[in-house]
Amino acid sequence: MSLTFKPQMITPISHFNKTHKNPSISTTPIYHLNQLTTLHIVFSSRKMTSHAKKMTSRMMIKSSLIEPDCGLLVDLVVAEDQREVKVAEAEGMVKVGLKKIDLEWVHVVSEGWASPLKGFMREDEYLQSLHFNSLRVGDGGVVNMSLPIVLAIDDECKQRIGGDSDVALVGPDGTTVAILRSIEIYKHNKEERIARTWGTIAPGLPYVEEAITPAGDWLIGGDLEVLSPIKYNDGLDNYRLSPKQLREEFDRRQADAVFAFQLRNPVHNGHALLMNDTRKRLLDLGYKNPILLLHPLGGYTKADDVPLDVRMEQHSKVLEDGVLDPETTIVSIFPSPMHYAGPTEVQWHAKARINAGANFYIVGRDPAGMGHPTEKRDLYNPDHGKKVLSMAPGLEKLNILPFRVAAYDTVAKQMAFFDPSRAKDFLFISGTKMRTFARTGESPPNGFMCPGGWDVLVKYYASLQPEEAKSVAVSA
User: Fold this and answer.
1) Who's near 117: CB < 8 A, 6+ residues apart?
2) Cα–Cα distances in Å, from 55 out to 2, 18, 58, 402?
3) What angle in degrees, to the nearest 10, is found between the helix axes of 451-475 and 308-320?
């Protein structure tokens, strides 16, 4: 049997390439699918040459779950039989207070989302992350690390620490949550950090105003020992599966592919169209049981975003109404805070999903983006996120899945992939417009969102109206 390879040009913004797959041929990984060309494989009855076998092998997409960065998931939670001793030791240390966002980062790092990072960044790690979006590892390779994960302290705290090498970290409720070992304190140049992370120092960046501007002028790095698993006791902790737990669940379900979809908004039928279409295409590629990881961001979000508890209730209705299949979907919370830093941040989102075991990552228009805080335009080019992901150092082993834009088809009266040849038939409903519909009680077009999910949003915005009226009365 021999192979004939026929190059065919396809559009760069299409879905991932469909490749014919022969189950009798053993597979090796192919990553970052080339969006410009695809090779269609034509088999004949003649014997396959060894060269052709090698080429075919390289064409195949990895079927098994992806390894975490550096091959090992970091787990920084102290073993239960050591917990009492560690807690007693921490009591004698200088205490460093954590804000809510700092605690979210302790959570993220402790569970291995940022593997191989083992704590808050010391200066050399911080500079690599800030300037190169990656970290150099022991074997000379690099892992992606596009966002600095750092802890800020002020002059008074720095003075209290003095020459100590270890400190205790205290959560917002006063509970000691971790020990930070072998610490290093260095200058927090806020302007440089903001400029390099967001590409602007314009006022009004949500994360900057929440976590950086009011923070101290020093950064403290070191190795974390987390005294017990981070819990929020908000009724949602059972949704907060760690990378280790997610990998175990993928194994339990016998997944041969995992495709992750992150969002910070309610799920509408356009999202569902995309997710269901992705699963169909993976099945067409030869996978037997692709599993969707629906992975809403659960850390800090800006004030006008829909709160996490409301989003989770809405997501559950999407599954109850059968828009997504519960048998092939895992809904879990990604505990990271949101930066709204566009192409820089989307690398972090993709990297974290590698550590969670997803070997496919769906990316769309303007991922992790926002409107410019002082001008009427997008802060980032909406196409740059997916382009950066296809080139980012340290993400080569992840299959990036750019998707076509979905909009409301006024003829078919349902969400559909946008067809430029009849653009006038499509209605784009932005997140802002969706929130306006829900706030005013106006119904969106039929087929935009499942009824149960829409009811959740309407009830949420209705609950805000008495509070908003009270706020206006107080102001007056």
Assistant:
1) 74, 109, 125, 135, 145, 149
2) 11, 17, 5, 25
3) 160
Residue at token pair 């190059």? 7
Q: Helices in 138-242 by DSSP H: which ranges? A: 155-161, 190-198, 206-207
Predicted model pTM: 0.84
Q: What angle do CA 234, 238, 239 make, to 5 degrees?
A: 95
Contacts 24+ apart (CB under 8 A), 459-464: 460/306, 460/307, 460/310, 461/435, 464/439
Residue carrying the six token digits 């950090």: 193
Q: Is the pLDDT confidence value at 347 over 80? A: yes
Mean pLDDT over the full length of the chain: 86
d(CA 366, CA 355): 23
CB 169 within 8 A of CB 161: no
Which CA distances in Å does 59 have to 309, 398, 417? Answer: 43, 15, 28
360 in the Ramachandran plot: left (φ > 0), alpha (ψ -120 to 50) or beta? beta
Q: Given its phi and psi angles, is residue 290 left (phi above 0), alpha (psi -120 to 50 degrees) or beta?
A: beta
